[in-house]
From TrEMBL:
This is EAL domain-containing protein. It holds the Pfam family GGDEF. SMART domains: EAL, GGDEF. Residues 1-238 form the EAL domain. InterPro entries: CBS_dom_sf (IPR046342), Cyclic-di-GMP_PDE-like (IPR050706), EAL_dom (IPR001633), EAL_sf (IPR035919), GGDEF_dom (IPR000160), Nucleotide_cyclase (IPR029787), Rev_trsase/Diguanyl_cyclase (IPR043128). PANTHER family: CYCLIC DI-GMP PHOSPHODIESTERASE PDEF, SIGNALING PROTEIN YKOW. Residues 423-560 form the GGDEF domain.
């Protein structure tokens, strides 16, 4: 086995946060002198040393990263067969980490194909044990090959690597976009993060951003190199790609949390030291890494105890007699109690924490912790402020200027979210009967007033029913998404009101489509199926309301009468 590894070197490829543009981790990629790492592993398999060779490569990756002083989380690759093998095989990996002074929490074990050759129950058990020992888990190659879709739900990994074949297919293909959406939806329930690998073009990057993928790696962003690149950013690349909303509208719209971005969208790796570290040790870290804004001092269980702000610390130790006074003493003397926030919090909750902090600490990094209060990383306030501001601008642009209601994109996201969640829901299409005649007789100003009044009625109705979302898609056309138990009270509340345009009363037409789980596949399909239902509603006299169902020609008339025949 040693002879197989003599000529193996490593290249390191960074993973980027697409919200901040910063490097958040680095993957170690084995580079044999001749051939590919797959060839090396195939030869090891024939010799009967596959698992030993696989673990030995991971050990070498740890040591090579340490030679470069890499302080970011390190992704190492292991086959699923190796992970499912004997637990004692991993003893060298634990030894390599002790040798370089790093812990399992600094490492993400990326489990790779083939999955089918690893006994499922044993693989899940071994991954559970690795996580208990502090390792973070990643599943590689998801979406292609033999990676089972049920495995992420069972393992709940910290990271899911989206296979490059999926990334290549993304731009302009609604089916592949829907696949990524489904994976994103699963990850919202498991707490996992999706990483897109193999990003090669600006079109792929724009599609990923539109779909809400927050982590990516690929040659477009940074190619693998022998010396890890940890201080680079991709802000320029993101700016060149432009507004992700400009991606082809044939792609499926993203599933976005209605409460806004999450804290973890802006996560940076934490620079940590033991809570017993001296000021000299902190100074050494800060001097060697100018981009680090602070150090988190953690206990033996990786729970944050203190935070050292870069500027305040350097001001203290570099002043007159500062080094002599502080260098050999505990850094905690110059530290502050950490400002903590849970990984499940939203960005707006973070801003609330900052607003109640001491004035001199409003720009301090916040430490993000998991349910066991272990440090997951840090968030920089400036990143969150910028992200929330961009979200508000995006939301404002999407609002209809007349009613201040969201447009069709917001409704499309809500419909697709309910479809993916297997919910029973209804979509309604409401408009004013003979609206052009209203404008022609009463004037367009009166028509605008009527639309504003109708928009207010819809907003008031939705405010009383939290499961209802309304949108104004243009002119006199409005869309409504509601749960089945909310459909009747909401619709009746709107249709029972009287509307007029400077005197003459007007009537409304509402067409509703009740969508059971699995009956529709997309917002586009819902739109197509609503069209004939709406035509039926418009054929009735007075304010009308009709209900249809996918797969059925039957239309139920809840309001409105037939037009009288003219003799």
């Amino acid at each position: 086995m040693p002879a197989l590894l003599d000529d193996v070197r490593f290249a390191f490829q960074p993973l980027f946060n697409l919200h901040t543009g910063a490097v958040v981790a680095v993957e170690a990629l084995a580079r044999p002198h001749d051939g590919h790492v797959r060839d090396l592993l195939r030869e090891a398999f024939r010799a009967g040393y596959l698992a030993d060779t696989d673990v030995a490569l991971a050990c070498r990756a740890v040591r090579h990263a340490a030679e470069h002083g890499l302080g970011l989380p390190l992704h190492v690759n292991l086959l699923a067969m190796t992970v499912a093998d004997r637990p004692e095989l991993f003893a060298p990996l634990y030894g390599a980490l002790r040798e370089v002074g790093r812990g399992p929490s600094d490492v993400v074990v990326e489990v790779g194909a083939p999955y089918s050759r690893a006994p499922r129950r044993r693989l899940v058990e071994r991954l559970r044990r690795l996580r208990e020992d502090g390792f973070r888990i990643g599943l590689d190659g998801v979406g292609e090959g033999d990676s089972p879709l049920s495995l992420p739900a069972e393992v709940r990994p910290e990271v899911i690597k989206l296979d490059r074949a999926v990334v290549v297919a993304l731009p302009g293909d609604p089916a592949w976009c829907a696949l990524v959406q489904g994976l994103q939806h699963l990850c919202e329930h498991t707490g996992s993060l999706v990483v897109a690998e193999g990003v090669e073009t600006e079109g792929q990057l724009a599609a990923l951003r539109r779909l809400g993928v927050r982590l990516a790696q690929g040659n477009l962003l940074a190619s693998p190199q022998r010396r890890p690149r940890v201080d680079v950013t991709i802000s320029a690349v993101l700016a060149e790609v432009g507004d992700p909303e400009a991606v082809s509208r044939t792609a499926t719209a993203p599933l976005r949390r209605r409460r806004g971005p999450a804290v973890t969208d802006f996560l940076h790796p934490a620079t940590t030291l033991p809570d017993s570290a001296t000021s000299e040790e902190v100074l050494e870290v800060l001097a060697g890494r100018p981009t680090v804004t602070g150090v988190v001092l953690v206990d033996e269980d990786d729970r944050p105890r203190w935070t050292v702000d870069r500027n305040r610390f350097l001001l203290a130790v570099t002043g007159p007699f500062g080094h002599a006074l502080h260098a050999r003493r505990e850094a905690a003397r110059l530290a502050d109690r950490p400002k903590l926030i849970g990984a499940g919090a939203g960005a707006l909750e973070l801003l609330d924490v900052v607003a109640h902090a001491d004035r001199e600490r409003t720009n301090d990094d916040l430490v993000v912790v998991d349910d066991d209060d272990r440090c997951l990383g840090v968030v920089r306030v400036a990143d969150v402020v910028r992200g929330v501001a961009e979200l508000k601008v995006e939301q404002a642009v999407a609002l209809n200027p007349l009613t201040r209601l969201p447009g069709s994109d917001a409704v499309a996201r809500e419909v697709d979210r309910r479809i993916l969640g297997g919910e029973l829901f209804a979509v309604g299409w409401l408009d004013v009967d003979a609206f052009k005649r209203v404008n022609d007789s009463a004037g367009f100003a009166a028509g605008d007033d009527l639309i504003r009044e109708l928009g207010r009625a819809l907003s008031e109705g939705a405010a009383a029913l939290p499961g209802v979302q309304v949108g104004h898609v243009g002119g006199d056309d409005f869309l409504v998404v509601a749960g089945l138990d909310e459909l009747v009270p909401f619709s009746a509340g709107v249709l029972d009101r009287s509307f007029a345009a400077e005197g003459p009363a007007v009537t409304l037409s509402l067409a509703s489509l009740i969508c059971a789980a699995g009956s529709v596949g997309s917002y586009r399909e819902v739109s197509r199926l609503l069209a004939p239902v709406k035509e039926h509603a418009k054929s009735l006299r007075g304010t009308s309301w009709v209900v249809g169902r996918p797969g059925s020609d039957q239309v139920d008339v809840l309001r409105g009468g037939p037009h009288l025949a003219v003799g």
